[in-house]
Design a protein that fits this description.
With 333 residues, the chain is mainly beta. The chain has helices spanning 2-18, 161-174, and strands at residues 30-39, 42-51, 55-62, 65-70, 77-79, 82-92, 101-110, 119-124, 148-149, 156-157, 180-181, 185-189, 193-201, 206-215, 220-227, 232-236, 240-241, 245-255, 264-270.
């Protein structure tokens, strides 16, 4: 009787140790922050996450649209708690969309096929308004449409498609959003060099992208600036030659209106470099401006006027008159 009970106890203990409930369960990814911005009939999304495993997919559902963004390995930064990162996405609205708000749903998926909790919200849509707040297809009429009378106000207005489009274009021109940068990719070139790659986009037109290399003490080591045109740009910087050490790459984009994107940075280290001295040609040179001597202008307040000798004038009171000689009197004969 004791032997079967002993075997049963050993079997139950083995099942308990081998059951998945006793194994470590990985945590699903978490959306730590998200931003939504409406501009020019598009909605820009920025999604940031913290996950135990690398995130491979970001799904955004907006109305009838579904956008899936594949996340590469460079978008996941290794941290003490796992992986963190962020992506940017642009969703174009349906031309027939005429609501005041756009509902959306965001979800992440990592390489273990674990999905995050759904994050929902709404984006307020900025619209060009007519005098009576009409919007949509009902307010769009052909240019040859007859003049209509509004019974509520007794005024006559001509609603034409050209006027509506002009108002929409005016609203779009007033909203100039700053550029948006993608994630940074550091590529090693040879034993001494690295290049910095990224993506940039703007609602109007880009102007340029600046790349900076900062050392561990916060000093600027090298920098590069490239010209970026159009609404989207993707490329790399020049090859930076560096000595061994820890560095930070800083990237920023600007558009034609002077708006600047938020800086993005990435830490990296150089080992095995053959350089012993940091190249100096990357630093900006200081131009010495020669000093041109200026002619000396005398100060009127300190200029001494030469003394002109004046003729001496005798004082009558002090002038001595020579004595008058009186001849002696002659005796009378």
């Amino acid at each position: 009787m004791k032997r079967p009970l002993l075997l049963l106890g050993i079997t139950l203990l083995a099942l308990f140790l081998l059951t998945p409930c006793g194994a470590y369960a990985a945590k699903k990814p978490t959306i730590v922050s998200h931003d939504e911005t409406y501009v020019s009939r598009t909605v820009r999304f920025r999604v940031a996450w913290q996950a135990e495993n690398p995130v491979v997919m970001v799904k955004i559902f907006t109305g009838r649209e579904q956008k899936e963004i594949k996340v590469d390995e460079y978008d996941n930064r290794r941290t003490r708690d796992g992986y963190s990162g962020e992506v940017n996405a642009v969703v174009e609205l349906d031309p027939a969309f005429a609501e005041e708000a756009l509902a959306f749903v965001i979800q992440l998926e990592d390489d273990a096929r674990l999905k995050s909790d759904l994050v929902t919200g709404k984006v307020q849509i900025v619209k060009a308004k007519k005098d009576d707040d009409q919007w949509g297809q009902g307010a769009l009429t052909s240019p040859s449409a007859p003049t209509t009378t509004q019974p509520s106000t007794g005024t006559t207005t001509a609603s034409t498609g050209v006027e509506i489009l002009d108002r929409v274009i005016g609203v779009m021109d007033r909203y100039d959003m700053p550029p948006v940068l993608g994630n940074i990719k550091i590529t090693r070139v040879g034993t001494d060099g690295v290049t910095i790659g990224t993506r940039a986009s703007d609602d109007k037109a880009l102007n340029g992208v600046t790349f900076k290399i900062v050392d561990a003490t916060g000093n600027l080591v090298q920098q590069d600036a490239v010209t970026a045109t159009g609404k989207s740009w993707e490329g790399t910087s020049k090859t930076f030659s560096l000595v061994n050490g820890n560095y930070k790459a800083v990237v920023q984009a600007t558009d034609g209106a002077g708006n600047s994107s938020r800086e993005k940075s990435e830490f990296f280290a150089i080992t095995g470099s053959t350089l012993t001295v940091q190249p100096t040609d990357a630093y900006p040179t200081t131009t010495t401006v020669p000093v041109v001597p200026q002619p000396t202008v005398p100060d009127p307040s300190t200029t001494q006027t030469p003394v002109v000798p004046q003729p001496t004038v005798s004082d009558p009171s002090t002038t001595q008159t020579p004595p008058v000689q009186i001849p002696p009197l002659q005796p009378t004969q």
